């Protein structure tokens, strides 16, 4: 058990907390089953040791009394000596049997404690980063443990509840979840896919976000245009910048741009912006034989799938997302700050890979 935790328990049990600390600690016990269980087991163990020491003290007192009586017995009091010896032996037997019973009970309890403490240590190892908040502030601990996903990519909101990502990212997924640094993890439903364009549309019922600043540009960008992307090749949002190096993608595919931009696994599905903040594409793949060369689906191709969308309500959302981008000019830093809340990690789980 973590020594900071036992110090905290001892402080409470020894009535060394002020009223504010005591109240905060008791609220923590009531709200966190793991901490409450650890505290109850620790308190039981301390009570057991306390009882054990009391029995040892009783045995010591009886032994001292016995020795004192023995030294005071003279030869002409042998009859009394046998009476005293009998009483002392009886007391010693009772104390010994009690001690053996208690030792056996304590041994069983200790084995039980070992299992619980091992388990508790395993659980606490997952919340070490939050543990100092409990020790210093005695605050409520909130942790969310998630299993490791089979894959991670990037997606971005184009409308409330609707997120764009790549088809290959969610292909054969049993479940999909999205989250970012600002919003907790939510389950997503795949409502539309286009294998040819490697595009997927996700619906997140729990997200109720409005005033999304990401607007898709319904015209081709120009060769040599400076571009940047935001994505999740790691746990934190990463910015990369580059330029459009060719108007067609791999194998001269006109649906894609070739971009010169350093990308890594996880960037797939990330938005591609021009310097004015308009979304001109979505990152799809990179060329493994050419350093820094990647490909992005053009925003004009994204717009053209409108008629194949599954519902009129989604088609209306699609049209709204392609409205003209506001003419107000902002610096890139301000644009990034505004956009990053709407860009998500996409976690994919598969039962079999």
Q: Can you summarize this structure?
A:
The protein has 353 residues and is an alpha+beta fold. It is 42% helix and 22% strand. The protein is elongated and about 100 Å long.
Description:
The protein is of the alpha+beta class. It folds into 2 domains: 3-137; 151-349, Thrombin, subunit H. Helices cover 42% and strands 22% of the residues. The chain has 9 helices and 12 strands. It has helices spanning 3-13, 19-31, 33-71, 78-124, 128-137, 167-170, 299-304, 312-321, 332-339, and strands at 151-159, 162-165, 175-179, 186-194, 199-203, 226-231, 238-246, 256-260, 271-274, 279-286, 293-298, 343-349. The strands form 2 sheets. A 6-stranded antiparallel barrel has the order 1-2-5-4-3-12. Strand 3 (175-179) and strand 4 (186-194) form a beta hairpin. Helix 2 crosses helix 3 and helix 3 runs antiparallel to helix 4 (78-124). The protein is elongated, with a radius of gyration of 35 Å. Residues 110-143 have low confidence and may be disordered.
Q: Which structural class do the helices and strands define?
A: alpha+beta
User: What is the approximate shape?
Assistant: elongated
Q: Give me the CATH architecture of the largest domain, please.
A: Beta Barrel
Helical percentage: 40-55%
Biggest pleated-sheet summary? 6 strands, antiparallel, barrel
Number of helices: 9
- Give the CA-CA distance, first to last residue: 39 Å
| CATH C-level name of the largest domain | Mainly Beta
**Whole-number average pLDDT?**
76
Query: What is the β-strand count?
Result: 12
Spell out the helices and strands N to C. Answer: HHHHHEEHEEEEEEEEEHHHE
Tell me the fraction of residues in β-strands, as a range.
Answer: 15-25%
Low-confidence stretches: 110-143
Radius of gyration: 35 Å
**Would you tell me which CATH topology of the largest domain applies?**
Thrombin, subunit H
């Amino acid at each position: 058990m973590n020594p900071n935790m036992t110090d905290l328990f001892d402080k409470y049990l020894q009535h060394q907390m002020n009223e504010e600390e005591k109240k905060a600690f008791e609220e923590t016990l009531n709200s966190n089953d793991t901490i409450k269980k650890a505290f109850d087991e620790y308190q039981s163990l301390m009570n057991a040791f306390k009882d054990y020491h009391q029995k040892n003290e009783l045995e010591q007192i009886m032994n001292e009394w016995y020795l004192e009586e023995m030294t005071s017995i003279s030869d002409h009091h042998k009859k009394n000596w046998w009476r005293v010896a009998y009483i002392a032996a009886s007391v010693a037997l009772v104390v010994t049997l009690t001690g053996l019973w208690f030792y056996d009970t304590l041994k069983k309890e200790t084995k039980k404690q070992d299992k619980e403490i091992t388990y508790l240590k395993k659980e606490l190892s997952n919340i070490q980063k939050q543990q100092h908040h409990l020790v210093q502030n005695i605050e409520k601990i909130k942790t969310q443990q998630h299993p490791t996903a089979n894959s991670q990519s990037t997606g971005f909101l184009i409308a409330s509840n609707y997120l764009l990502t790549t088809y290959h990212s969610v292909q054969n997924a049993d479940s999909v979840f999205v989250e970012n640094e600002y919003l907790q993890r939510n389950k997503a439903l795949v409502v539309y896919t286009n294998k040819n364009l490697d595009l997927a549309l996700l619906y997140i019922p729990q997200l109720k976000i409005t005033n999304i600043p990401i607007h898709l540009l319904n015209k081709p960008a120009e060769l040599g245009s400076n571009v940047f992307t935001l994505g999740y090749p790691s746990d934190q949002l990463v910015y990369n910048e580059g330029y459009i190096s060719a108007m067609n993608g791999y194998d001269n595919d006109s649906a894609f741009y070739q971009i010169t931009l350093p990308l890594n696994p996880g960037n797939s599905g990330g938005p591609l912006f021009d310097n004015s903040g308009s979304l001109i594409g979505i990152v799809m793949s990179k060329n493994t034989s050419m350093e820094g060369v990647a490909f992005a689906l053009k925003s004009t191709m994204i717009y053209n799938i409108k008629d194949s969308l599954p519902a009129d309500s989604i088609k209306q959302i699609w049209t709204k997302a392609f409205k003209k981008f506001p003419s107000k000019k902002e610096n890139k830093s301000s644009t990034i700050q505004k956009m990053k809340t709407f860009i998500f990690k996409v976690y994919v789980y598969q039962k079999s890979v």
